[in-house]
Fold this sequence. Notes:
It is built from 3 helices and 9 strands; from the N terminus they run ααβββββββββα.
Amino acid sequence: MRYWVLVIAFMLASVCASSQTIHLSDSLRHVFKQRITPSFKFDTRNSFITGNSTKVWGIKGGVSFGKRLNLGVGYNFIGTELIQDVIVNGEQKEADIQMHYVAPYIEYSFYQRGPWELITPIQLGVGNSFLEYSTPDGKRAMNKARVVLYEPGMAFEYKILKILGVGIGLGYRIMLKNNRAIDQQFTSPVYALRVRLIFDELYRRYQDYNGADEAK
């Protein structure tokens, strides 16, 4: 699976490299003049930890500048149970591998043509990874330490009736600072299926509908 993720990521990068030249400074200057609207999203991403398939859940909120740029912050955590054997007070126990982090993010739509859109999502996360095991008194954490990670990516999206976007996102999780107390490989490819409602378009249609009613 990881092999095919890397192959697809290379193909997407090649397509983008051959696309039209982007005048980024001019584009951003225009983007920041657009109407600002709130943006909220709940997403899931698939990755790997030491070869084991792992799902990451994210809750994100921020602002959107027109239909080009999203800025915000998200809370992310591992949503798959991964077990590691640990020794606690001379006794072997099963512990769940955990990682929670807060990540400011930016998503820039640098290519839009017809129903097709190319997006570059980037986030920089700061949080903790640790091992969690059960005791008669509840859950306990061990080997907890700070982690810093960087997740660049790319997403292709196709819009259906301009109100529903479907596509695929690919990226890579790079551990800038790892937890040396946990002997696991967190650096990994990241991939996700994207499905989202385009609230800007829904809101525009709602305003058009109300305006038409008032004109009658």
